[in-house]
Write the structure tokens for this entry.
Amino acid sequence: MADPQRAEEPVLITDAARSYEEELATRKRRYKIMMGMRIPCMVLAAVFYQIPWLAVTLLVLSIPLPWMAVLIANDRLPIKAEPVNRYQAERPQIEPRDHPVIEG
């Protein structure tokens, strides 16, 4: 038989943040993705050199990417919002019954 005090989800006992290593790995991944977007922009600008407005647009988009990547990589991650699952003990309730009314 299942234990009635066990919940479907574990009970949250701490509001601990992510470890430093996990946070750093996430920030590095974001940085690599943003810097990886710069190379295709520059290559596509070279491919579309015969369409000047497209080539210039791609180059202009690639200019602020390193700056934005550094800002995002150095920013701390937002605190993860999780629904709190707290332990709630089962309390036996008193049975409802008719109460005598005294009329005076």
Notes: DSSP finds three helices and no strands in the chain.
